[in-house]
């Protein structure tokens, strides 16, 4: 799909292609039984004292969640300050959950609380402030679909973490299936939804036609070569 879009309208193609490539390699690692650590558990010991915790899925989220925050920010037209803040919040969220997954005492729930608080701020920003900005650009209907879907799934991640790496309620296989379904619905479905909806957007109005800032094949084809003058037909 990247090759069918104009050069100035490929920002989301490139962004989500990279996210999907990272997701593919992390899930390949899990399927190969790589990228995990043995972590002693403090809760639900009936399901095992030592848990196989796949840290590689957090690597996927460290790329996917900030990329989703970036994508929503570009669509809504919020300031770069807000976009960077949302990216930082998503990183803080994932790192807090990763740290909590390694803690072998009940203090892990402290990390869970910090990470979940960061997600709440991120959710309020992407739902409220960003939606108001999207209204000014006339893409509010599309944005509310995308941000609503994203935040609906983001709500489930804290619950899933509490049942898996946090509370040890669900086994390793169930954990992989649980997060696998969430990640597919989050990244794959959202990626195609953005690309489909983006086909009717005015990238210049959204200020995301980034190749306009440098010469491209499109602009070179539309303008005469340097040092030559256009021919005048008499």
Poorly predicted segments: none
Percent helix = 55-70%
- CATH class term: Mainly Alpha
Task: Report the sheet-strand fraction.
Answer: under 5%
CATH topology: Rhopdopsin 7-helix transmembrane proteins
The tally of strands reads 2
CATH homologous superfamily identity: Rhodopsin 7-helix transmembrane proteins
Tell me the radius of gyration.
22 Å
| Biggest sheet record | 2 strands, antiparallel
Dominant shape: elongated
CATH architecture: Up-down Bundle
Structural class: mainly alpha
Number of domains: 1
Number of helices: 7
N-to-C span: 43 Å
Q: Overall pLDDT, averaged?
A: 88
Helix-strand pattern? HEEHHHHHH
Q: Enumerate the strands of the largest sheet in spatial order, edge to edge or round the barrel.
A: 1-2
Q: If you had to describe this structure to a student in words, what would you say it looks like?
A:
It is a multi-pass membrane protein. It is found in: Membrane. Belongs to the archaeal/bacterial/fungal opsin family. Keywords: Membrane, Transmembrane, Transmembrane helix. It is a single chain. It is built from seven helices and two strands; from the N terminus they run αββαααααα. The chain has helices at residues 11-31, 56-76, 80-102, 108-137, 140-166, 172-198, 217-222; strands at 36-40, 50-54. A two-stranded antiparallel sheet has the order 1-2. It has a single domain, classed as Up-down Bundle (Rhopdopsin 7-helix transmembrane proteins). It is mainly alpha-helical. The model has no long low-confidence stretch (mean pLDDT 88). The protein is elongated. The two termini are 43 Å apart.
